[in-house]
DNA sequence: GTGGAGATGATTGAATTTGATTGAATATAA
DNA sequence: TTATATTCAATCAAATTCAATCATCTCCAC
């Protein structure tokens, strides 16, 4: 049997409860109580505590696994998705940068990948609001400037009105932006108003705005747009349908498709990725 | 076996505790006490010490393995030099903070140690120019704001004129400062002009300025001072000579000495004073 | 030997956790 | 719909665990 005489610590119990939940997506309070040899009152308290920490979903009579309702996947997860495509996009964007440029790096995993490639260039001035990018560039010889602002945990970026004053003081040659969604009508959009605000301020201070967005972003619209009169100079993506491409080029937006043959080295991508 | 007559050294015990933890992710205080043949009081002391060094997680009734909550490797936490003096200073400074305070955290290892202790407080607004502190506070529930500025690699802080505009927009209740040196004539001093500049701007925007400086800093003067009309409200240190102390107190600067047994008293004192 | 610093174990009151109980809220059946 | 059976959250007392204090002990320098 499971109930081995000795008392269980809270941490231990939570571990067991998560295991029970993992085995069958739903468990009842009484089942947990019996399995762990503890009163139902304690089980309910544990479940509530775990629910408050977002570990599980509470349902009448028991608990259920937390379904991924998060509108924005965690940073680490995003980095796994589309890594090959994002790498190609970042590589294509890299060729737009020259020595001695002043560039801005936005948040997002694609831009972060670009940040990792900057060692090959010399004497850049890099402005960023992404702590991940900053962490990546800490040891680099380039000049690194962070915008201030309120820290947004989910994207690990500095956003909001407090980022505005510092952005007013600088001008960058090229701003490399990430986004949650992009449409030809609304431009970039994201899930957080503060983040959209900062993106807008950045783009106002950039001579050239370059968007790095894989195909999953194109045609999608998220919660907040970056304002009605959006502006974009270059879109770097991995695939785009001809209609959208034409629309963009009519607006004088250069489209760079970093496809498989564009980098030539990365061949034989999984066929299912072409979905 | 376990209880081999001779007494165990602290280091030896910690090794055994880590082994127990490694075997089963959770162990009780009583289990450790029994396994190592020592009183539960000593076990608790060991566990606390190890917890403070980040070796394990303390839970009611025992200890649990430290789960790596953040998927990202933190900035670079290599210089994890644990110093008892700095720990005491930070603990004494902690008792100056209350729930809902707005505080500033400067760079430096002592202030960083304070940042690690902020979990015990609620609903803080934390402004900082230290990327180490920011990394430490990334997962905390507090509101976190970073000043912008140029990244200075050696101190991992954001400094220089670009940090000024954002600082003009905020006011903090208490600013916890670090320093390279401090004298009663020149105040704080550091090695970098940009860093001194930012320190000065911060102190202008703080209702109360609190300096955390161990005794090695007192009486030392570094390259750049933070300006002729420096201002300080509280100095927290681990030891100070009477003459300096008197000079400071004549200037209405409160001196807190976090001696060996002062930590407990300081905490207990505030706990009651908070009533 | 003397004295001080540090470590240990016992003790104490405070804080936390637990299980039982209660009435209210919710789900199920008729 | 109403009636019945579960489940829930709040409360309380008992048990456990905690942190702080104190007396003792060891070790080391003087």
List the helices and strands and how they pair.
The structure is a homodimer of 275-residue chains.
Chain A: H1 10-23, E1 26-28, H2 29-36, H3 40-52, E2 56-59, E3 62-65, H4 75-80, H5 83-94, E4 102-105, H6 109-116, E5 125-128, H7 131-137, E6 143-146, E7 149-152, E8 157-159, H8 164-168, E9 172-177, E10 181-183, E11 187-190, H9 193-204, E12 206-212, E13 224-225, E14 234-237, H10 242-250, E15 254-257, H11 260-263
Parallel strand pairs in A: 4-5, 4-9, 5-6, 9-12, 12-14, 14-15
Antiparallel strand pairs in A: 1-3, 2-3, 7-8, 10-11, 11-13
Chain B binds a DNA duplex (30 and 30 nucleotides) through helix 3.
CATH class of the largest domain in chain A, please? Alpha Beta
N-to-C order of helices and strands of chain A: HEHHEEHHEHEHEEEHEEEHEEEHEH
Total of domains of chain A: 2
Overall radius of gyration of chain A: 23 Å
Can you describe what's shown?
Two copies of one chain form a homodimer. In chain A, helix 2 (29-36) crosses helix 3 (40-52), helix 5 (83-94) crosses helix 6 (109-116) and helix 6 (109-116) runs parallel beside helix 7 (131-137). Chain A has helices spanning 10-23, 29-36, 40-52, 75-80, 83-94, 109-116, 131-137, 164-168, 193-204, 242-250, 260-263; strands at residues 26-28, 56-59, 62-65, 102-105, 125-128, 143-146, 149-152, 157-159, 172-177, 181-183, 187-190, 206-212, 224-225, 234-237, 254-257. In chain A, the strands form four sheets. A seven-stranded parallel sheet of chain A has the order 6-5-4-9-12-14-15, with helices on both faces. The first copy, chain A, has a three-stranded antiparallel sheet with strand order 1-3-2. The longest helix of chain A is centred in the first third of the chain and has 14 residues, at 10-23. Chain A is built from eleven helices and 15 strands. Chain A folds into two domains: 10-65, Arc Repressor Mutant, subunit A (Orthogonal Bundle), CATH 1.10.10.10; 75-266, Rossmann fold (3-Layer(aba) Sandwich). The model of chain A is unreliable at 1-5, 69-77 and 262-275 (pLDDT under 50). Chain A is of the alpha/beta class and 275 residues long. Chain A is elongated. The interface between A and B is large, with 35 and 37 residues. Strand 6 (143-146) of chain A pairs antiparallel with strand 7 of chain B, so a sheet runs across the interface. The structure holds a DNA duplex (30 and 30 nucleotides). Chains A, B: Residues 10-65 form the HTH deoR-type domain. Chains A, B: One of its GO terms (molecular function) is DNA-binding transcription factor activity.
